[in-house]
Amino acid sequence: GRATSALLYIDGVSKTFDGFRAINSLSFIVDPGELHAVIGPNGAGKTTMMDIITGKTRPDAGTVLWDGRVDLTHVDEAGSARLGIGRKFQKPTVFETHTVEDNLLLALNADRGVFATLMARLTSAQATRIDELLALVRLEDRRHDLAGGLSHGQKQWLEIGMLLAQDPKLLLVDEPAAGMTDEETMRTAQLLRAIAGDHAVVVVEHDMEFVKALDCRVTVLHQGTVLADGSLAHVSAVPEVIDVYLGR
Ligand code: ADP
């Protein structure tokens, strides 16, 4: 069934903070390689849902199953990363005083120390992977530049490249388009579309033009539960969704 065929299977999950129900009987499924957008007003529970998936927050009730077999409610953040769940927070975090190439190299060797990684000779497999990642995130011509000198959008792409270096099965991306120019926003949608297939990608986003460009399944959260689910065209026509977005 769905619980075993899905990469991530969330069912009947609830989480209460000081008596306030942030997540309420939430069900959410991600299939392998799927690109999936999560939208919803402030306070809808999007961040809490990501925190539950990554083991930052433990739910009070419900099922969170990984790859049909691992109970994620007993896995912490380090454990979820080891299972293949990568998380990109909203703010870019790159090593500003290292080159773009070295940022990717450090990510490829996340299990080793910085000094050991930078002193070791690049293996040909690593060099090939770095070339692939640089092409994917469109930073080939910035390879030898310090990451600190990149634009905001380029830093976001570099960090996505760093997460991909660890070959996650699921990449969670929080509002990647925030603070980007229109062109960067569209390039980011292209990038996430290119990544999907090889990796499942869940994107939390507010920018509807960006969600439209992702052209993927959309889940609308409201008051900690799913209000609508399907294509953007479908969810945009659901009366409850229109009410929530128009504040009625
Ligand atoms: P979103 O990311 O969709 O804006 P959140 O998941 O951040 O929503 O928050 C959902 C609700 O849960 C909000 O009302 C928020 O104030 C509350 N909440 C989230 N985390 C905590 C916490 N650690 N303690 C108390 N309340 C929290």
TrEMBL record:
One of its GO terms (molecular function) is ATP binding. The keyword ATP-binding applies. The keyword Transport applies. Residues 8-248 form the ABC transporter domain. It comes from the Bacteria. GO terms for cellular component: plasma membrane. Keywords: ATP-binding, Nucleotide-binding, Transport. Transmembrane segments: none annotated. PANTHER family: CONSERVED COMPONENT OF ABC TRANSPORTER FOR NATURAL AMINO ACIDS-RELATED, HIGH-AFFINITY BRANCHED-CHAIN AMINO ACID TRANSPORT ATP-BINDING PROTEIN. NCBIfam families: urea_trans_UrtD (TIGR03411). This is Urea ABC transporter ATP-binding protein UrtD. It comes from Roseospira navarrensis.
